[in-house]
Design a protein that fits this description.
Four copies of one chain form a homotetramer. The first copy, chain A, is α+β, with helices and mostly antiparallel strands and 472 residues long. Chain A contains 17 helices and 23 strands. In chain A, the strands form six sheets. A seven-stranded antiparallel beta sheet of chain A has the order 3-2-4-1-10-9-11, covered by helices on one side. In chain A, strand 7 and strand 8 form a beta hairpin. The radius of gyration of chain A is 23 Å and the shape is globular. The interface between A and B is large, with 67 and 67 residues. Chains A, B, C, D: Catalyzes the formation of phosphoribosylamine from phosphoribosylpyrophosphate (PRPP) and glutamine. Chains A, B, C, D: This is Amidophosphoribosyltransferase.
């Protein structure tokens, strides 16, 4: 699906315990997690008694940090955490960039958060009753207020456990104390990924394993739902929840769209999962055609799976312009759909007189897809079929993904038939929910995945009017 | 092949005759030709009596031009030419950015050039004998000196013909006069592509047809070797050379590497040519393996061809990080090969215990390939075979490509066996020259293509000590 | 005195009640107050129910705000406050830029502060005991915590009165509520200036009257020490303190150095006060000379006063280079004192064989003055006398000025005789404390001015180890 | 006079023969000459056989050059020349930035030019007849074409003499050869200043002596009209013209406006000359008043002279805002004349009920002066008299100054009486031509100065239709 329409994930997080190049390695970790958030990024380092040094900015990691910026916060042996963010609220200001850092009784704490608390508004009200003031709209600030209130004699673990007991929703936190402790927390349903790695003996936490690959850390394991992991001079201590929920609620959309294909999350490689979805799609909705092609780049792997399963040739028939900047001059009159066309150009000679199957990973508004299909028709495509590698999105997500920022969920308002006509297709098929779960290769998938955005069965209750106020 | 090692093409050119949005359309044309030069770009517009307005800058098209810049030069009905450049000399300054513009007797002329004159140093000496002074190191300046000297009573065509008679080497020029005439010139051997299109009745020239696609122009035809095309109020006038060479010398490396897959050059689509090379490679050097993969993105299409011909599955087993900036902080100690690894990460789960065939489009220095092969081995690849979709580069190009800027031609100094060991491969095969020509599907390919970089048979003589002084 | 050595004032503040161009006028107000703080600036606007919109940045006002930035926060009829800041602590980050904005029970409040609380560390400790967390090192955050804790049923005035009762030190606050109320508060000793004006019926507050001149507001009056002024739909309401201190403590250094000569503060025009100091200096320490000159620009007005009183000609014998940027390349070897010399160059022909009196407004470290005196000697000055238009600084300020950031107070460690030798002068005289007070033209000046930095008699007690922790 | 209205000088030039820090010292020299041109600047260095390295840019010296830029061109023992430029034509592009550099027969030459050739268009036509092409609209390019054509066997001096014989108009050139020779040339009438200095044994050339002060060079002497000075390994060689003109034509406006007050040009210090003009003005047009004030900064020194001669007190009653950026947001409705008022604010308390004499250095359009006079009236000034320290400008300059870029010469179209009313003054007086000459203190001033802009007596003939085509 296209950039403008794509769902917005809330964040990627990274943490590293005491390393001579902690800030720099965190910078590289964020580089690898950039796909999880392109709006702001930050790094916080605990290197001296009682203090935490931070650098944050708006934009991409490689624009925000210079070598000088890193040198200023790098301590030589400190611990660091980092964060990339894609605002899910309208409030995309530097104030909301993470890690969020506070001072309390002369000590500093920093937190980086991925997810969405569904009871943040309730917790915030309670805090304000007691005189707390807030500067941001972030869950992280709520977390830190609660944390500090529960902190006695510096017992960090105890305070975290008390806070976690109050939180409801989806979250993967990394907390950094000015003593250099790095603490990872995953919510009891395990909505968002968070993994533990090891880099030459130094423990590291990251949202996805692709960050370990880049910093050349070894993947140790993923955190369990509800697990708290404390990394300090005693190594790694793990605390499991007393009464875990019966069912996990792993976000299946991480596989379909968000996570990088080279990451392993929730126990399975993303690339392989996508191919499995493509194979399933071929089984569910075979059609004869000259070739299968993805709309780059998101449908690539499902398309390969579809081609393999169906035996229909695979082609990359739309060519990406590698030099498209983030903004460009808008054509004034003569050219329609320039923004769509400049990024990808179909190979005219491949398309003419062909029957084509397009694999997409999802359709949100559909206007870009419509333009692209029309372009193929204009070049003489005989038939154009589309296969979507996930079920239709019909329900909003309250656990950290904003599908609707830039428009309606087209699948919620149009029937498949209407959509086929709207997009100008010869046929259209969405992967079924059953097919998606079966293709996952997991036993009892119903007990493992959250698929609320497809069927509306929300695993954690919430007040739909309020629970999106604090996010990210 | 990787960015650092890649051969440098010299330029892309674009021109448009009288259009209300001539500057803006040229901007978009350059956008589509950006792959042919990322170092500087410029647009010149003839819109008023005797004057030419230009905007040039260093960097990418979308960084150089703002809407304001375009408005300043746009005239509403003027003619425009544009240029993107990748310096093949060390001299990458704004002074050398094109189009090159001069004043002569109150009239302005601008020229955009793609290619390399092998006798530029001789022509320049002769001019200096007569008191000419030069400000740049560009062939374009030599061309304009000669042009102006031959210009009597404003007969532009006559002057061009006299100049062309003196030029030796590879060139595709577009000349713009202050009267708004747009003139395309291709050298008699036809080394570099140049095509004619039509946009709502306005004629347009471009290095590649992908530029026509973006501005929604129709492709009319390619210029013939030696052809001069004059676009003015009388439409298009074509002048063919009196004594054309017996053989064409179309640069076959444009197919292999430079041109965009969605372009048609020298009569054939580039994507299809690359697939044909991949198929030929599979025929020449089959090997059993679990899958075929490209090193993205340049080997993609040959890899698809190889997979189809061999029946071995195709995988995209290296994942691109879409957010890598043009520069980033260099890791100081802990991480080797970061620059190589940050762009592409192999999918660990696909690689383990597999036999793999990698398709590359060429090897220049080989250090990046070596690092990538090693990465696959580290992940547990059982066997790694490499197939190169062109013959080994053993000779320098004097017609506009600089293979050696950043290092030696590894194929010129190592045997295939040495290279196999150097790269850490189980087997290595280069496409044969014969295979390459045969796969081209052209009759008498020997009489059509320049393949001097592979076999040293140079179609136009030159003095190797001097002929690279003026380039671009 | 020179830029590097100059004392750092903490801030300038500006506020405007409901105006169609509130943000823009605040921008211009800050422009006029820029001399009070060049490190960061910000504007906050209350224009919609419950919300406050802000734009802040590091640097100068004209670099921080674009028209787009202002448009984004401008509401058309909102109220606005603004702030310029010169960090007096080492912490010069965007986090500390003001106005400081918080959310509490769904309502936003913003505050802009000029001064220094001497009991901020005590107030902060008490707040932290009760679970408050802090993100900045600013007094403003302490103020807002206290304010919110005292806020019941939205009675803003009551809350402010309760907070003020706890604050000790120097402060001039402007508070903005999301309802659009603008509230000005001056501490009971009246250390820092704050004035009320009126712009076409709209009330405005500003640190100095020069801001009224620029926005073309009329000067109404200055706030009294201890006064709280509430501007809302009922107009202006003034609340005076119940038990005001017996003595005022107006910062006399505002006259000598900080305030702009075109401002009226504490009831008197700054230009005229400086001339009066110069006249007094001439009476206290006359010496024969060929001419009197200032070291531009700060000594200009005292020098004119000195020249008038003494009858000695006035010359501007050091010429300013108007094009010196904020930074420049440091000469590597050949040139000493370049940074000093580049800004001002003496007029060689005026200096030779002359006896000269230099008027300075203060000496902090003295190294720049030494260099300049040496330059005059090198050009052949026969005698060089210096007269300082204020008494020697011997004591630190705890009420908002940091004299010592970049070095020692030279007057505190050297006798006048030592200093005369150190600076290479023929004679040196500081204005006496008595002369300064007498020249002020105020009755009972001892009961009106704070002159602690000259004589150590601090009007408000403090703990010298801690009271500088929170500033600005 | 105000920035918008001020006449535009064309250039400042600087040159230094072989010094380990030649580029850096030239940078500082340009820093000191910045007032002579703020549009573009450049430095060229001859450090290696046959080559010249340059860095040029648009804007101010301190924005254009970074330490890295200087390091790239600095050679360690090379010669350097530099240039600052204020475009007198509409063509303010980087192409026209100087030094202008060319290659000829493998050797490079660079030239920096201050002045205007009145026969440039004729010389250019002749060159074009012989096939020369031009890229810029600068006199420097004409000079270099002629120079190269006259260059035989590398005899640089001979070539320069032949060129000079053809040039007509005002010029001060510095030429740099790739051998490191630095050659200064002043036109036979001596319109523009150019001086020789010495820095630790290294010879240096500069437009004004203030540049020597900054780089700590000693002033040796000014070049004579028509003199050619060659600096090379033999030291300094001077060649005087065979038939010098009977009369010098030193630009008297350099004293009045352009040159810095701390410079000595044409044998006299600028500051003292301005004071002498002020004194003369007091003698010519005395009026009783409370005080004399300049409109800063240009009238400062004449105002001091006027005050001294008249015995009327001197005040600096308009306060400059030192933080006004080069651009700022334009107020949309509420504030008129903001651009005028933001820079200078009158001191309200000084003005009220006073009779005031304003000293200005010239009036071009008069609109700013009108606004400022009105502001004084609004503050209650009883009477406002204006005295102008030069005669009225009634004629255009063809020797390098563009008075009329932004408007008409108000003095050419209005009588003194009309102007008095237009500006809202009680009285107005311009310095008389006779008074100006007499005040100069030079014998036979008629034979020494060009005063064509005041009386139309042009010392060098020209074709008024054409002679402004090539400038700078």
């Amino acid at each position: 699906m296209t950039e403008n329409e794509r769902p917005r994930d809330e964040c990627g997080v990274f943490g590293l315990y005491r390393h001579p190049e902690a800030a720099q390695l965190t910078y590289f970790g964020l580089y690898a997690l950039q796909h999880r958030g392109q709006e702001s990024a930050g790094i916080s380092v605990a290197r001296e008694k009682d203090k935490i040094f931070s650098h944050k900015g708006m934009g991409l990691v490689h624009d925000i940090f210079t070598m000088d910026d890193l040198k200023k916060i790098e301590g030589g042996g400190g611990s660091a955490i980092g964060h990339v963010r894609y605002s899910t609220t309208g409030d995309s200001t530097l104030t909301n960039a993470q890690p969020f850092v506070v001072q309390h009784r002369g000590r500093a704490y920093a937190v980086a958060h991925n997810g969405n608390l569904v009871n943040a508004h309730i917790l915030k009200s309670e805090l304000e009753e007691n005189g707390s003031i807030f500067q941001t709209t972030m869950d992280s600030e709520v977390f830190l207020h609660l944390f500090v209130k529960n902190l006695k004699q510096g017992n960090v673990l105890n305070a975290i456990q008390k806070v976690v007991a109050k939180l409801e929703g989806a979250y993967s936190f990394i907390l950094l104390t000015c003593k250099g402790e790095v603490i990872g927390v995953k919510d009891p349903h395990g909505f968002r990924p968070l993994a533990l790695g090891k880099l030459n003996g130094h423990y590291v936490l990251a949202s996805e394993t692709c960050a370990f690959d880049l910093v050349q850390a070894d993947f140790v394991r993923e955190l369990e739902p509800g697990e708290i992991v404390i990394i300090n001079e005693d190594g790694v201590t793990s605390i499991m929840p007393d009464n875990p929920p019966q069912k996990k609620s792993l976000c299946i959309f991480e596989y379909i769209y968000f996570a990088r294909p080279d990451s392993t999350i929730f126990g399975r490689n993303v690339y392989e999962m996508r191919k499995a979805h493509g194979r399933q799609l071929a089984r569910e909705a075979h059609v004869d055609a000259d070739f299968v092609m993805p709309f780059p780049d998101s449908g690539n792997y499902s398309a390969i799976g579809y081609a393999e399963e169906s035996g229909i040739p695979f082609e990359m028939a739309m060519i990406r312009n590698h030099y498209v900047g983030r903004s460009f001059i808008q054509p004034t009159q003569s050219m329609r759909d320039f923004a769509v066309r400049v990024k990808l150009n179909p190979v005219r000679e491949l398309i003419r007189n062909k029957e084509i199957i397009i694999i997409e990973d999802s359709i949100i508004r559909g206007t870009t897809a419509k333009t692209r299909v029309q372009a193929l028709r204009n070049l003489g495509a005989k038939k154009v079929h589309m296969r979507i590698s996930c079920p239709p999105h019909r329900f909003p997500c309250y656990y950290g993904i904003d599908f609707s920022t830039k428009g309606e969920l087209v699948a919620a308002v149009k029937t498949e038939e209407e959509l086929t006509r709207f997009l100008g297709l010869d046929s259209l098929h969405y992967l079924t929910i059953e097919g998606m779960l079966e293709a996952s290769g997991v036993e009892n998938p119903e007990n493992n995945f959250c698929k609320a955005c497809f069927d509306g069965s929300y695993p954690v209750d919430f007040d739909p009017n309020l629970s999106k106020q604090c996010m990210g």
